[in-house]
């Protein structure tokens, strides 16, 4: 089982879109995949058509005493091999409510350890807040994937997220490889191209040498949710996500080989 955290302390950079697209790509390759929605805004949950009322069972129950098991909470999607675990709006106050319950930073990691090898890949769609949920995700993750908008203002957010990842790595004394996926890239603008160059200069091999382009087929302003696009969906955006997944799998294979 491999656990990927998809995180950035900035919102609207394509985290949920990336989680869904990579998840679909992995399922299309025959893997058993579980997507966990760790954002109280529940975009990923809603992409699967789950309404916010009545409140679905999900991540909140991993923090209950005693915690529920992932297998009992996860739902099958219509896509073979792709399961998901819902977020709830109440997660926004989890931190405040659990102030007198120590040890909750490892709740997700412990739930995943009990879950064992029932899925090949677990993808964690994080909220853009450096709080208890993000700490849980980074503690559990085998790798950190940072989607980052290819525009100048996003560079600070990227640097901050990289520092957070490195800090977690030092404190847990277990490697947390970082991969950066430039997203929402507009090839025609100088700002986009220069930002991409700067990202590569600052973060080197961690950065994918390509970028996910802005593709109007990915965003659907009429819908309030991130659309759940098929791995075979036409267009530059999804094609780029397929390439990004190949790169991620190749770099992971190289990391695992180095660690062996
Ligand atoms: P986050 O999870 O980081 O907040 P989302 O994945 O929800 O970001 O994306 C934010 C918005 O941008 C959504 O409306 C989404 O559909 C849109 N979007 C994401 N990636 C692309 C893209 N490559 N091209 C066009 N729109 C995109
Ligand atoms: Mg999101």
Automatic annotation (TrEMBL):
InterPro entries (UniProt xref): AAA_dom, DNA_Partitioning_ATPase, P-loop_NTPase
Organism expressing this protein natively: Stenotrophomonas terrae
Database matches in SUPFAM superfamilies: P-loop containing nucleoside triphosphate hydrolases
CDD domains, per the entry: ParAB_family
Positions of the AAA domain: 1-176
Entries under Pfam families matching the protein: AAA_31
PANTHER family registered for this protein in UniProt: P-LOOP CONTAINING NUCLEOSIDE TRIPHOSPHATE HYDROLASE, PLASMID PARTITIONING PROTEIN-RELATED
Name of the protein this chain belongs to: Plasmid partitioning protein ParA
């Amino acid at each position: 089982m491999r656990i990927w955290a998809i995180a950035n302390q900035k919102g609207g950079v394509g985290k949920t879109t990336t989680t869904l697209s990579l998840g679909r790509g992995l399922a299309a390759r025959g893997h058993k995949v579980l997507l966990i929605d760790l954002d109280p805004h529940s975009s990923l949950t809603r992409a699967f058509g789950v309404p916010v009322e009545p409140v679905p069972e999900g991540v909140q129950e991993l923090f209950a005493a005693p915690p529920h098991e992932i297998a009992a909470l996860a739902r099958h999607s219509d896509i073979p091999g792709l399961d998901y675990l819902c977020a709830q709006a109440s997660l926004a106050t989890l931190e405040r409510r659990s102030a007198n319950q120590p040890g909750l930073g490892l709740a997700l990691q412990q739930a995943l350890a009990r879950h064992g090898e029932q899925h090949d890949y677990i993808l964690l769609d994080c909220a853009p807040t450096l709080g208890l949920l993000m700490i849980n995700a980074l503690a559990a993750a085998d790798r950190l994937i940072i989607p980052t908008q290819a525009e100048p203002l996003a560079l600070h957010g990227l640097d901050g997220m990289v520092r957070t990842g490195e800090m977690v790595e030092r404190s847990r004394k277990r490697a947390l490889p970082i991969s950066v996926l430039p997203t929402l890239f507009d090839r025609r603008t100088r700002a986009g191209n220069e930002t991409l160059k700067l990202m590569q200069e600052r973060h080197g091999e961690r950065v994918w040498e390509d970028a996910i382009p802005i593709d109007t087929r990915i965003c659907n302003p009429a819908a309030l949710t991130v659309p759940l696009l098929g791995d075979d969906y036409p267009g530059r955006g999804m094609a780029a996500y397929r390439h990004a997944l190949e790169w991620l799998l190749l770099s992971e294979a190289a990391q695992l080989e180095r660690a062996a």
